[in-house]
Specification:
heterodimer; A: mainly beta; Immunoglobulin-like; six-stranded mixed β-sheet; three-stranded antiparallel β-sheet; globular; B: mainly beta; seven-stranded mixed β-sheet; four-stranded antiparallel β-sheet
Chain lengths: 109, 114
């Protein structure tokens, strides 16, 4: 079955601390993996995707096919990083995105 | 460049009624995907339209139907509304119906079924 699991509903860290948002997936094949972010009162937007191998706003994510994970990391969290983060995968069926349940990141001053 | 827009912003219906939600895709995009997001959950894929043809469907009953028009705008229709249909409905547009395409989301339509 195709599934994305984000085990933490809420992650709370202090400003300047490292942050890691976990994402595990289940998919028979080679999916495309994405992280989407939703800031307060804004629409869902793409943060990064594994095919680009780029760092956005200091966030990186590495696809680990052996562990079927795509964890999102940032070495030093900022208060403006507080938002809802969704991990998603897209398989071979066109652009269907399968989302995890989301992790709310709260960065305290 | 105009982003994805959705209308209405929110609406309230009663059980058994029918509803139509609308989405205008981002300029230059020919693909529209619809998602349902229940409270506290991630978005769930309903279906996708690519150049006016359905290009994939999620696990939703036939009373969820859609259309895409020649200008690539789209409608989501839901018949015989049920209480569980209460959710945020998101529309996303992309350049093509491929799994590598970035999807750009609209602000959503909040549907409440009483």
């Amino acid at each position: 079955a195709q599934r994305v699991t984000q085990p933490e509903k809420l992650l709370s860290v202090f400003k300047g601390a490292p942050v890691e948002l976990k994402c595990n997936y289940s998919y028979s094949g080679s999916p495309e993996l994405f992280w989407y972010v939703q800031y307060s009162r804004q629409r869902l937007q793409l943060l990064l995707r594994h095919i680009s191998r780029e760092s956005i706003k200091g966030f990186t994510a590495d696809l680990n096919k052996g562990e079927t994970s795509f964890h999102l990391k940032k070495p030093f969290a900022q208060e403006e990083d507080s938002a809802m983060y969704y991990c998603a995968l897209s398989g071979h069926q066109g652009g269907k995105l399968i989302f995890g349940q989301g992790t709310e990141l709260s960065v305290k001053p | 460049e105009t982003g994805v827009t959705q209308s209405p912003t929110h609406l309230i219906k009663t059980r058994g009624q029918q509803v139509t939600l609308r989405c205008s895709s981002q300029s230059g995009h020919n693909t529209v995907s619809w998602y349902q997001q229940a409270l506290g959950q991630g978005p769930q894929f309903i279906f996708q339209y690519y150049r006016e043809e359905e290009n994939g469907r999620g696990n939703f009953p036939p009373r969820f139907s859609g259309l895409q028009f020649p200008n690539y705008s789209s409608e989501l229709n839901v018949n015989a509304l049920e209480l569980d249909d209460s959710a945020l409905y998101l529309c996303a547009s992309s350049l093509g119906g491929r799994n590598t395409d970035t999807q750009y989301f609209g602000p959503g339509t909040r549907l409440t079924v009483l």
